[in-house]
């Protein structure tokens, strides 16, 4: 019998984030490493409506200079083996004049983090933005200390557009440096192989 090559984790899918999925994400988002990477001072309370609203505000916050205050598009990241989302994608700060959105992605399920879902989830999110949202460019604001996210972004073709010194308020009150990463629809389309997977 031929050996079947392991093709990695289950392929994630994206779906609109409803209230049940949102509260389930909040219940999972308690890992100290996640809180630190997201610059949240403490976990949110899924049973407190004000805290649920604060979570939505936190994941919808746009920070880049050319972003605009528009309604976010929030999607859950789903895998077949879980009845609830394991993470989220937020498209925020849409600028219609530039055809741009900021993108925020986080895997919050502690069991599913670091299991290889990041790359396929971001690939699906970029496809969604350039397809369903008709975006021309995607931006990501990433702390300079978040090497895993920077490296993953670069592997997916995001380029550093600018370094923004002392631009992100940390829970301690200090200001951290960020990188402004960019992916364009033109560059993304050029990276795609005929099979529909990114190189």
TrEMBL record:
PROSITE patterns in the cross-refs: GNAT
Pfam families: Acetyltransf_3
Domain of life: Bacteria
Stretches assigned to the N-acetyltransferase domain: 24-186
Descriptive protein name: N-acetyltransferase domain-containing protein
The species this protein was found in: Thiohalocapsa halophila
């Amino acid at each position: 019998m031929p050996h079947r090559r392991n093709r990695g984790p289950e392929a994630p899918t994206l779906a609109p984030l409803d209230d049940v999925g949102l509260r389930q994400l909040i219940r999972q988002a308690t890992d100290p490493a996640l809180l630190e990477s997201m610059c949240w001072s403490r976990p949110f309370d899924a049973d407190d409506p004000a805290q649920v609203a604060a979570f939505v505000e936190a994941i919808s916050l746009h920070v880049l200079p050319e972003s605009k205050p528009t309604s976010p598009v929030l999607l859950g990241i789903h895998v077949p083996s879980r009845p609830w989302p394991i993470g989220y994608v937020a498209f925020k700060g849409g600028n219609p004049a530039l055809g741009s959105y900021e993108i925020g992605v986080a895997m919050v399920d502690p069991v599913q983090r670091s299991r290889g879902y990041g790359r396929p989830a971001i690939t699906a999110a970029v496809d969604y933005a350039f397809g369903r949202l008709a975006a021309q460019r995607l931006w990501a604001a990433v702390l300079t200390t978040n090497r895993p996210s920077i490296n993953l972004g670069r592997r997916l073709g995001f380029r550093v557009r600018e370094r923004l010194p002392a631009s992100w308020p940390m829970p301690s009150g200090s200001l951290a440096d960020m990188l402004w990463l960019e992916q364009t629809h033109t560059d993304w389309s050029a990276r795609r192989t005929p099979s529909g997977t990114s190189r």
